[in-house]
Amino acid sequence: MEETVKQEQTTSAEQERTFTQADVDKIVAERLTRERAKYADYETLSKKAAKVDELVEASKTMRSELDALKSAETLRVMREKVSKDTGVPVDLLTAGSEEECAEQAKRIMEFAKPGAYPQMRDGGEAKSGPSKQTTRDQFAKWFNSQT
Questions:
Q1: CA–CA distance from 8 to each of 18, 19, 76 (Å)?
Q2: C-alpha–C-alpha distance, residues 105 and 95, integer Å
Q3: What is the rounded distance in angstroms from the CA atom of residue 92 to the CA atom of residue 42?
Q4: How many helices (H) and strands (E) does the chain have?
Q5: 3-state helix, strand, coil in the chain (%, to 5)
Q6: Are 105 and 82 in contact (CB under 8 A)?
Q7: Backbone φ and ψ of 113, nearest 5°
């Protein structure tokens, strides 16, 4: 029983130890040094992280540009195919899918079919009115009347 009392007295004496200001300053300085050592490469890591963020953003931008180029190329190839299949000039096709493009080409061909517009004779000059005079003749007649 005496041993137990001595051990309790010894631990309580250690717990009641008082520190001088110099001791506290030394303990705090050591702890600060240990903490600063943990984050010594913080600036380097921060710069590297910022560069990684920049590269990720640049990659996203490049990816979106690449996707846009692929989409434009796909549209161009599809329109050329429909143009080749239907005979409609590729410049007239504006639809976004092959089905829509084929439908658009069909409507263009229906509009442009022979007989959909008047045939021109006499070198392409239209006859007007009951007199059946050409436009050239009508203009010449008007011009001569003006002088």
A1: 18, 21, 91
A2: 10
A3: 60
A4: 5, 2
A5: 75, 5, 25
A6: yes
A7: -65, 150
Note the pLDDT tens digit of each residue in 90-131.
999 999 999 999 999 999 888 887 665 565 555 555 555 556
Q: Is the pLDDT of residue 80 over 70?
A: yes
- DSSP designation for 92: G
Structure tokens at 136: 């050239």
Residue 45 clears pLDDT 80, i.e. is over it: yes
pTM above 0.85, yes or no: no
Contacts with 128 (C-beta within 8 Å, 6 or more apart), sequence order = 135, 138
Cα–Cα distance measured from residue 147 to residue 142, given in angstroms and rounded to the nearest whole number: 9
In single-letter form, the type of residue at position 16 comes to E
